[in-house]
Structures are given as structure tokens and as C-alpha cells.
Write a structure and sequence with these properties.
With 388 residues, the chain is an alpha+beta fold. Helices cover 27% and strands 22% of the residues.
Length: 388
């Protein structure tokens, strides 16, 4: 009996020991699966080889001969140029980091950009520092300096030069080759200028009940809207005639692009001085139309320009006016003269700038002078005038 008990005790001990061992093994495997292996050590980043400054070369070019037209600055004009072009060439076997700064003191903000020039690589950077508000108040071409610097972080500039540039008057427009930049005449259409607001206010004297509602005739027929647009265009025309605006040419501008550039008076100049050429008077009229919420157009034909206004929103029908008949010519004569130019000029030589389309492209009015107040329009002048 004692022997049997001993055998049972031994067997029980073996079974318990086996179960305990299996439990420990299961726990060990569970711990291994829930604790991921430690991450591999990060690779050691070796510093880039030092690049000698003699292996980095710089070249600066002024593609527009250093001339800056404020109305086109930093634009997407088809026939225009950056202020400068900086070319950086890295002749070494390692990359170089370059920080480039550019500024026209007193006329622009400082622009800063950084880039990496790879081994044996050449990079080209267009330099276009943002003009300050005073650049849009400049009335004559001025000489200025473009300051350019390029350097690696924490080092003295590898390139540090000042180049002479020429800032044009805000009224100077570079039309470009074959009038490629003509759509930018929309920048001269300034509906919020105080002189334009006063013109529109005085136009109320020439419409029934002093009402100028633009296209705002809800529920009315297209014919009535068209008639109202004609009445409002006539009212603005009469207000401009009351100012005694007469034809005075002032096209000339200085610089290397005088053959493709022109001085265009802003509406406040035209309305305050009562003088204008064909482009000047057209943008003044277009400014009043846009102020009233209508869609004006400027038409350019060889040697001349005139204005128009769509007879309804998004309409193709347009009322055209040649305002160079002012101050003696009538509203009907202005319509007839515009019709004469349209009939005389082949369709492929008529360039129509739709101001609302230009706005959709991001071409907005030239900024108004800070804290400027346009003078009240001058009294009518009853002198002989020149018209075309």
C-alpha cells in the first residue's frame, strides 16, 4: 500500500512540474509578442563637405535694362520682365544652401528666398521685390538702387552688389510688343477714386429723379434695361462735358521703351485738370461706369482709343462712345464717331479690353494715394478745344 501511494505521489509531482513549466513557457512567449524589439539606432549623419566660396559663382542680369513700370510690377504680363535675374552656379561636389535677399531702398520691401543648389548645378532666381505704396505715387521716372545679397547660413555674403534701376511714374504704361499688355489698361480704371465718385454724383443732375441704378432694374425687360444704360451713359457724358474736358495729348515717357510705352493720365488727373487724350478720357468714363456696377470696355484701334459699356450684365451688345468729341460734341456724335472707327477698322485690328474680364484675371485698379483727397472738379471752361 505504501508503495502504491509513493508511485501516485511521484506521478502527481511530475504532472504538476510539467504544467508549471508549460505555464512559464507560455508567459514568456506572450511577453515576447507584446514587447516589440528595441528600435535600430539612427544612422549617423555625416556633415556635408565644406564648399569653397570660390566654387560658387553668381551672375546678375537686368532683362528690362533696369526699368520698372509699377502698373506691371510682379504681374503676369506677357511682355514684361523681372527686375533682375540672379544665376547661381555650384562647381563643387557638394550641395550649397543659399539665402537671397533683394531690396530697392525707399521703394520696395525686402524679399528673401532660400534654395539649395546641388552639386554641379546651376539655379536661376527671378528677383521681384514688392513695391511700397509710395512707388504708386511717383510721378516721374527716378533712379534707384537694387541691392542684392546671396550667402550661405552664418557666413558673410558670397555675393553683394547694388545695381542702378529706374522706377517709372505710376502713369507710365508699357504696352508691350503688338500691345501684348493692353489688358493692363484696366489698372487705370479706378472706380473708387474720389474724383470719379464726384463725377458720378454730378451725373445725377442729368437723369430723371436723379436715379443711377446701373443694371438694377429687377423684373424689367432687356429693352428697358438697355434704355436705362443709355440714359446713365448719357448722364456721365454730360457731367464730363460740364467739366469742359478738352483734348490735350501727353503721350511721351522717358526711358529705353518710349516707342512701346505711353503716359496715361489717371482719371483723377483728367477730371481735376479737365484735359485728356483718347485713352485718358476713355478710362475716366469706364471708371464711372464701373462705379455704377456696369461692365465697361476700352477699344484700341491703330492710332486711337474709345470706350463702351455693355447694355446688360454679361451681354454682348455694347454702347460705344468716342469721348474725344468733348466738350463741344453731343452724346449722339460720340456714338456716331465710335461707329465710324468700328466701321473703318478691320476686325482683326480692333482690340477690346473687357474690364470685368480683366478683374477676373486679377488685374485690379492702381492703388489710390494714401490719405489723398482729390480736388473738386474744376468749373466748366468755355474755350476752344482740339478734338480728333
Amino acid at each position: 500500500m505504501t508503495r502504491i501511494l509513493a508511485i501516485l505521489f511521484s506521478a502527481t509531482t511530475v504532472v504538476l512540474a510539467t504544467a508549471l513549466g508549460a505555464t512559464w513557457w507560455f508567459a514568456y512567449q506572450l511577453m515576447q509578442s507584446t514587447n516589440p524589439p528595441p528600435p535600430e539606432p539612427l544612422p549617423v549623419l555625416l556633415p556635408s563637405p565644406q564648399v569653397s566660396p570660390l566654387q560658387v559663382r553668381y551672375q546678375v542680369d537686368l532683362p528690362g535694362r533696369g526699368e520698372i513700370f509699377p502698373a506691371l510690377a510682379s504681374s503676369n504680363a506677357r511682355d514684361y520682365w523681372p527686375v533682375a535675374v540672379l544665376t547661381i552656379s555650384n562647381a563643387s561636389d557638394g550641395p550649397v544652401l543659399q539665402t537671397i535677399s533683394a531690396e530697392i531702398p525707399e521703394w520696395s520691401r525686402r524679399s528673401t528666398t532660400s534654395l539649395i543648389v546641388g552639386p554641379r548645378e546651376t539655379r536661376v532666381v527671378h528677383i521681384n521685390p514688392e513695391l511700397l505704396p509710395q512707388a504708386y505715387q511717383n510721378t516721374e521716372i527716378r533712379r534707384a538702387l537694387l541691392e542684392l545679397r546671396a550667402s550661405a547660413p552664418g557666413k558673410q555674403p558670397g555675393f553683394d552688389q547694388a545695381r542702378p534701376v529706374f522706377l517709372h511714374a505710376v502713369s507710365d504704361l508699357y504696352w508691350g510688343n503688338k500691345f501684348a499688355n493692353a489688358q493692363f489698361i484696366a489698372r487705370w480704371v479706378t472706380p473708387h477714386d474720389l474724383a470719379v465718385i464726384r463725377l458720378v454724383s454730378s451725373a445725377r443732375n442729368y437723369v430723371p429723379a436723379g436715379r443711377l441704378a446701373g443694371y438694377g432694374l429687377a423684373g424689367n425687360t432687356p429693352e428697358r434695361v438697355s434704355a436705362q444704360v443709355r440714359d446713365e451713359a448719357r448722364a456721365v457724358f454730360e457731367a464730363m462735358r460740364h467739366l469742359g474736358i478738352s483734348y490735350v495729348d501727353s503721350l511721351f515717357t522717358f526711358g529705353n521703351f518710349s516707342g512701346e510705352a505711353q503716359r496715361v493720365r489717371l482719371p483723377r488727373e483728367t477730371l481735376n485738370q479737365s484735359s485728356a487724350n483718347c485713352v485718358d478720357v476713355s478710362v475716366a468714363f469706364a471708371s464711372a461706369m464701373e462705379n455704377l456696377g456696369m461692365d465697361p470696355v476700352i477699344v484700341i484701334v491703330p492710332g486711337h482709343a474709345f470706350a463702351g459699356v455693355r447694355l446688360a450684365r454679361d451681354a454682348r451688345e455694347t454702347l460705344y462712345l468716342d469721348l474725344t468729341v468733348l466738350p463741344e460734341g453731343s452724346f449722339q456724335r460720340a456714338i456716331s464717331r465710335a461707329g465710324y472707327w468700328l466701321k473703318k477698322t478691320p476686325a482683326n485690328q480692333q482690340l477690346v479690353i473687357d474690364i470685368s474680364a480683366a478683374r477676373a484675371l486679377g488685374i485690379y485698379p492702381i492703388p489710390l494715394p494714401l490719405q489723398a483727397k482729390s480736388a473738386r472738379p474744376a468749373a466748366p471752361q468755355h474755350e476752344a478745344s482740339k478734338t480728333t
